[in-house]
């Protein structure tokens, strides 16, 4: 016969005992949260795999012809098709594709003759380096500009910052890159030209992280470091301009909403200095949504730098993807698309974690 507590106090004691025992409620909540987080990532990544797989089957490019050539005999074509597993039903091909990706096998690149995973490990750090400096420029300049524009709403400074934001949305990236090269490189000689580094420095630094700035510092070669910075400034600044426009606009919008709140009016009535009202009372509540904006902007720079890398001959993943498309190199195209999508997922999940850390209401 089951024991039933005789009073409400005993019920409370029993519940607290269950909660504080060997399996506390907080522990199970933590496990459920972690499990849900991992499951969300797994399902999202599975969806990404499905999209990249079916894109490769829908695009009117025959991967077999890309390997054997359009003049290969029929027997050679069929043998290559069987070897690549394209004679199997689509579900079987998809399962094999998942297995290959999870094992790190993204196939061979027709363009380079090397494994796609090896190519991506070589080119992605260049994009990461440029996009990281670009987002730093965007945050350092964009956030203060947005705050200043909101604090001066309707005045000349606000109008100028809004025009800068509008230009960032409307000016084509390739045009701005070409103008930047023509003015700051060809005319003024203030920055380095196309490429990641001058050709006579190429290969002198042993790659450790793949990030040329860090690797040159590790090697103790300050001359190569400065040359890499000289080449990086202009493309990163162009990317940073587009990031700046988006971040400044969103910061301004968030700040206008906070400055209209009653607690801000109360602080002003109490005689709190305007600078403190803006940065302590109004700016702090927008940090959480601002993190999401910065994360999305950073992910956009990583995946949307194709034009900039083409204009500046930057050896990153965008340039690699463009070359692969022109050569009908579907393994490289799908591999690059998969990496970009995985990075986008990772950045979004990191921003979600930061959101929960900074905002107790989201926990």
TrEMBL record:
Location in the cell: Cell membrane
Family stated for the protein in its record: Belongs to the binding-protein-dependent transport system permease family.
Record carries keyword Transmembrane: yes
Keywords from the UniProt entry: Cell membrane, Membrane, Transmembrane, Transmembrane helix, Transport
Chain coiled-coil ranges: none
TM region positions: 30-55, 130-151, 163-186, 228-248, 286-308, 328-347
A Pfam cross-reference name: BPD_transp_1_N
Keyword Transferase: no
Source species: Paradevosia tibetensis
Topological category with respect to the lipid bilayer: Multi-pass membrane protein
GO CC terms of this entry: plasma membrane
Main location, first listed in the record: membrane
InterPro entries with a match to the protein in the record: BPD_transp_1_N, MetI-like, MetI-like_sf
One Gene Ontology term of the molecular function aspect: dipeptide transmembrane transporter activity
Protein name (database record): ABC transporter permease
SUPFAM superfamilies documented for this protein: MetI-like (SSF161098)
């Amino acid at each position: 016969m089951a024991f039933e507590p005789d009073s409400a106090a005993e019920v409370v004691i029993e519940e607290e005992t269950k909660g504080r025992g060997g399996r506390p409620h907080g522990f199970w909540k933590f496990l459920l949260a972690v499990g849900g987080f991992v499951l969300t990532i797994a399902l999202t990544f599975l969806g990404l795999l499905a999209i990249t797989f079916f894109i490769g089957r829908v695009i009117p490019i025959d991967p077999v012809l890309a390997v054997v050539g359009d003049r290969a005999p029929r027997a050679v074509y069929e043998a290559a098709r069987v070897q690549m597993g394209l004679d199997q039903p689509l579900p079987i091909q998809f399962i094999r594709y998942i297995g290959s990706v999870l094992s790190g096998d993204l196939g061979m690149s027709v363009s380079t003759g090397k494994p796609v995973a090896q190519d991506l490990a070589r080119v992605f750090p260049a994009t990461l380096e440029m996009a990281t400096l670009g987002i730093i420029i965007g945050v350092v300049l964009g956030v203060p500009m947005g705050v200043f524009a909101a604090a001066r709403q309707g005045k000349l400074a606000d109008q100028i910052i809004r025009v800068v934001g509008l230009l960032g949305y409307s000016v084509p990236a390739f045009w701005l890159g070409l103008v930047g090269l023509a003015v700051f490189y060809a005319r003024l000689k203030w920055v380095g030209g196309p490429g990641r580094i001058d050709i006579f420095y190429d290969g002198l630094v042993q790659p450790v992280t793949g990030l040329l700035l860090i690797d040159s510092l590790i090697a103790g070669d300050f001359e190569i470091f400065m040359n890499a910075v000289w080449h990086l400034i202009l493309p990163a600044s162009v990317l940073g301009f587009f990031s700046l426009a988006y971040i400044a606009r969103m910061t301004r919008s968030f700040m206008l909403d906070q400055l209209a709140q009653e607690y801000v009016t109360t602080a002003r009535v109490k005689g709190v200095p305007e600078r403190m009202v803006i940065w302590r009372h109004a700016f702090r509540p927008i940090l959480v949504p601002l993190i999401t904006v910065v994360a999305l902007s950073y992910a956009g720079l990583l995946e949307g730098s194709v034009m900039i890398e083409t204009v500046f001959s930057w050896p990153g993943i965008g340039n690699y993807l463009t070359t692969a498309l022109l050569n009908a190199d579907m393994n490289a195209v799908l591999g690059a698309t998969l990496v970009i999508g995985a990075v986008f997922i990772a950045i979004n999940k990191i921003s979600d974690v930061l959101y929960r850390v900074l905002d107790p209401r989201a926990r």
